[in-house]
């Protein structure tokens, strides 16, 4: 029975991972050691299966060296400190990580097994030991359009993203909810007044939102009643880092011999934990819409093609309906007037599941 170490399991992504692993009874297949950077010596969580009773030191290199697999959701700072130190000791175990810092390393594979399982298996056979979760919007895009990518039908794709607060972290989700409460408290009397007009209410909200009263520690500007057209650091050619990841990570995940052009405009919106994306893509050949839908639907068991009508779209293609599920609905599929090879689509996915925790869980199961 392998010894598995867990770091960062109390955070948001880590908590989702723990819940999924308990749902699938994954802990029955190995011995667990829970590690902490700040709670060393306290009781470990109670789970099914064999485990250490107390939290261990996540910075203890000797202890980490005794583990067969380490799965971490602790973040890039921890990975940047511990990973190179651990490898320098000669540790040959498997490192599974949700953080972004190691993704583009030559000795690391970005994991999304419904899309790149063959490449993952080949990498394991070739001795690769480092497996990293991908960027959330990239993973969700590939899950939704995997049927077209797998057939090498996409010449280029442009994604307009509508990204949830959860992508910034738990503090950001809390900040958005606090902003909602602050705005409501500002106009609560207006809402019950028979004389206040909606323009009075809107004016009050807008004026309040432009003051320093709203909590904006994470996003620097209000997210409630707003959108933020910038995610990540500036890179080059006007791109942000989040937009740069689209092409870089897509091609690494797919292990393409010829790069597929992927570009995007990434925007933060007031959704809690589901990212949405509007795609415009150019196919390499003219294919009928029915065949496109069949290719997408048959690619994996989680993608779900939604008929392009109002009722189905409103019922199935929104963040609220998808939140907390593994489903990847894709709809609004149609050919654009610009060309028969140009396709539009809209997809939604849970940023914390397929966008973060689920690929890690499934990678761990493969290595047992």
Strand residues, percent: 15-25%
Name of the CATH class of the largest domain? Alpha Beta
CATH architecture of the largest domain: 2-Layer Sandwich
Output the helix-strand order.
EHEEEHEHEEHEHEHHHEEHEHHEEH
Largest sheet: 8 strands, parallel
Total number of helical segments?
A: 12
The beta-strand count equals: 14
CATH topology type of the largest domain: Dihydrodipicolinate Reductase, domain 2
What helical percentage do the residues reach?
25-40%
Secondary-structure class: alpha/beta
N- to C-terminal distance: 8 Å
* Chain-averaged pLDDT: 97
Instruction: Note poorly predicted spans.
Output: none
Number of domains: 3
Shape: globular
Name of the CATH homologous superfamily of the largest domain:
Dihydrodipicolinate Reductase, domain 2
| Cα Rg | 22 Å
Outline the structure in words:
This protein is α/β, with parallel strands linked by helices and 368 residues long. The protein has three domains: 143 residues, 3-Layer(aba) Sandwich (Rossmann fold); 154 residues, 2-Layer Sandwich (Dihydrodipicolinate Reductase, domain 2); 40 residues, no CATH class. Helices cover 38% and strands 21% of the residues. The strands form two sheets. Strands 1, 2, 3, 4, 5, 6, 7 and 8 form an eight-stranded parallel sheet that branches. Strands 10-9-11-14-13-12 form a six-stranded mixed sheet. Helix 5 crosses helix 9. The longest helix has 22 residues. The radius of gyration is 22 Å and the shape is globular. It starts with a strand and ends with a helix. The model has no long low-confidence stretch (mean pLDDT 97).
